[in-house]
Specification:
- The chain has 405 residues and is α/β, with parallel strands linked by helices.
- It is built from 14 helices and 17 strands.
- α10 runs parallel beside α11.
Length: 405
């Protein structure tokens, strides 16, 4: 799946109207952006297109828009303000509840080469998430060329990333951010430098069924942590107490352990666990009592909430000699300082290895950044759901829609 897609380097946009699908789905509080990583990540593509003399029309969704009230809090207006500062030039916000309308057409017609405007939240239009033609045609009517740089939504076929490509006559290419995601995730899974170690954590086995299956075909070692590990331990016949457990997936876990053995793959599970009496409330409450027990000796009245010190050692050693590591999902309840040791240790082990290290978005990305290891990783994916589907081996509609080289 090393995908050979046309990128912004393959086209000339001078004087052209360039519709750029960005991922400006940033967290906001009281109208203020609380994490601007996604804005910063978009800058290289935008600067390249501005320098080449394109007329940039940016679009993105922001959150879920279910009601009219949502439209008051889910506007992209604050993004235009911050993006103007980051780019060092005006990003003109053109408000319209229909996203594209007469005032937008007028603003686009008045643009000079190198200017930038931002449209309103694409999800203000109900058609967006259903990929219906009317909105795709509206977006296409104001553009000559399409650039998709929003990997975070690449696993969804929406108007602003897939539908619009049916109607824009010019090139459909990917931006630098998408290119990087495709290169890192695609190559890691399809052509990894070995040994290839995959680390999966997070709460539920159900979320990662196809990922586990696909990665067992590709990797040399698969490490399981987080809440999903307890379903595997149950499949080994162990008592897991009050730990997270997906009873309906116990047989699946047995199958995966058998598959690993049959294929000569190493499947590593926790050998000890940090247990608590009950789940902390609030989640970051440090006032909790913990005990470390062997993975086959979890008391019936306690729950596992992190990997223990022996498991930390086992997992850290497993990545030491790796050449490629993909990590998706924390090792425990990392939001709690008392239960973050496992996740911290895995992040530290990855930071110290000379392997290509790829963090698969979502909670793992948050953990790595929060713990201060972000700059030590080869690549941190901007899309949690999209990176998971990539690791499952699925085709992503937003990627498929771009022109092949």
């Amino acid at each position: 799946m090393a995908l050979n897609k046309k990128s912004v380097d393959d086209i000339n946009v001078k004087g052209q109207r360039v519709l750029v699908r960005c991922d400006f789905n940033v967290p906001m509080k009281d109208g203020k952006i609380t994490d601007e990583n996604r804005l910063v990540a978009a800058l290289p593509t935008l600067k390249k297109l501005i320098a080449d003399g394109g007329k940039l029309i940016l679009c993105s969704h922001l959150g879920k828009v279910k009601t009219e009230e949502d439209k008051l809090t889910k506007t992209l207006a604050p993004v235009a303000v911050r993006l103007s500062e980051l780019l060092g030039q005006e990003v003109k916000f053109v408000a319209n509840p229909e996203v594209v309308g007469p005032n937008v057409v007028e603003a686009v017609n008045a643009m000079q080469d190198g200017e930038v405007i931002l449209l309103e939240n694409t999800r203000f239009r109900k058609e967006e998430t259903k990929n219906e033609d009317a909105f795709s045609q509206d977006l296409a009517s104001i553009a000559d060329v399409f650039v998709n740089d929003a990997f975070g939504t690449a696993h969804r076929a929406h108007c602003s990333n897939v539908g619009v490509t049916k109607y824009i006559k010019g090139d459909h290419v990917v931006g630098y951010l998408m290119q990087k995601e495709i290169d890192f995730l695609g190559n890691a899974v399809e052509n990894p430098v070995r040994p290839f170690v995959a680390i999966l954590g997070g709460a539920k086995v159900a979320d990662k069924l196809n990922v586990i299956d696909n990665l067992l075909d590709k990797c040399d070692t698969l490490i399981i942590g987080g809440g999903m590990a307890y379903t595997f331990l149950k499949a080994k016949g162990y008592e897991v107490g009050k730990s997270l457990l997906d009873e309906s997936k116990v047989d699946y876990c047995k199958e995966m352990m058998a598959k690993a053995e049959a294929n000569g793959k190493q499947l590593l599970l926790p050998i000890d666990a940090v247990c608590i009496d009950e789940f902390p409330s609030p989640i970051d409450n440090p006032d909790i009592k913990t005990t470390v027990v062997a993975a086959d000796a979890i008391p019936a009245d306690r729950e596992g909430a992190d990997i223990g010190p022996k498991t930390i050692e086992l997992y850290s050693n497993a990545v030491k000699n790796a050449k490629t590591v993909v990590w998706n999902g924390p090792m425990g309840v990392f939001e709690n300082p008392v239960l973050a040791a496992g996740t911290k240790a895995v992040a530290a082990a990855l930071a110290e290895t000379d392997a290509t290290t790829i963090i698969g978005g979502g909670d793992s990305a948050a953990a790595v950044n929060t713990l201060g290891y972000g700059d030590k990783m080869s690549h941190i994916s901007t899309g949690g759901g999209a990176s998971l589907e990539f690791l499952e081996g699925k085709d992503l509609p937003g990627v498929v829609a771009a022109d092949d080289k």
